[in-house]
Write a structure and sequence with these properties.
Blueprint lengths: L1 E13 L5 H11 L24 E6 L2 E7 L1 H5 L1 H6 L3 E4 L2 E4 L2 E11 L1 E13 L4 H9 L3 H22 L10 E6 L3 E5 L2 E14 L17 E5 L13
Antiparallel strand pairs: 1-3, 1-6, 2-3, 4-5, 7-10, 7-11, 8-10, 9-10
Length: 235
């Protein structure tokens, strides 16, 4: 078992969903010539840090936000100290003040009960599993494939955070949106929103899967009003 630290930096700057990469660029630019690698995941001009992103740029409640995980929370002070209240988002300059900084610790482990989550702008399909998805005979097969990918995304996050589960990770997608298209660097990507339950405790607003660092695959906990709506998961 391991406690995972997150620190969410909420701003008062309104941005659109497609401006998250521009917000990321503005934050990095504000840090000068030598920002910490966690802000951009570039080791040099040609090499990348292929690991779970510890600083993630988000749009939460319509406002620009940064979610820092573990060591990411230790270096975010570099941005907070450099912020002068203004950021350039593409062609426009915006006022950007910090409205709240929220530190949280979550014990990430499997439990005998399940928790309910929503994942937004999730990008599960690469070129290989896209073909498998398109060839699936029915919606049930497609959903099972997506459940397996979701499980793999969560396990990849756990591995990146140095967490080894003693028990099996169990999950089930309980509601799935129709796919929709989002664009990143001019490339069309098939995205989904989904509700799922699993036996893993997950920090709010962390991202998984492709483009997790720029607002995709963001997870938040859903608390059901009716306890009878809980879904059991069998192995």
């Amino acid at each position: 078992m391991k406690y995972i630290r997150t620190l969410t930096v909420l701003t008062d700057a309104e941005i659109r969903q497609n401006e998250i990469p521009l917000f990321r660029g503005a934050v990095i630019h504000s840090l000068g010539e030598h920002p910490n690698v966690y802000f951009h995941n570039h080791l040099d001009d040609e090499k990348f840090r292929y690991a779970y992103p510890l600083i993630q740029y988000k749009r939460l409640g319509g406002k620009a936000a940064i979610v820092c995980v573990e060591e990411g929370a230790d270096v975010i002070g570099q941005f907070l100290s450099e912020l002068n209240g203004m950021l350039r988002i593409g062609e426009r300059e915006i006022t950007c003040d910090i409205s709240r900084v929220a530190p949280v610790k979550v014990l990430m482990q499997t439990w005998k009960t399940t928790f309910n989550y929503h994942i937004n702008r999730w990008l599960p399909l690469n070129s290989k599993n896209y073909q498998i998805y398109k060839m699936a005979d029915n919606d049930r097969e497609k959903r099972k494939l997506l459940e397996n990918i979701l499980k793999a995304n969560l396990l990849s996050m756990l591995k990146g955070l140095g967490i080894h589960l003693e028990d099996e990770l169990l999950l089930m997608i309980t509601q799935l949106s129709e796919h929709y298209i989002i664009y990143n660097k001019g490339i069309a990507l098939m995205a989904f929103n989904a509700d799922f339950c699993c036996n893993l405790s997950i920090p709010n607003n962390v991202g998984i899967g492709k483009n997790a660092s720029i607002g995709c695959g963001t997870i938040h906990r859903v608390r059901l009003q009716n306890k009878e709506n809980k879904t059991s998961i069998s192995e």
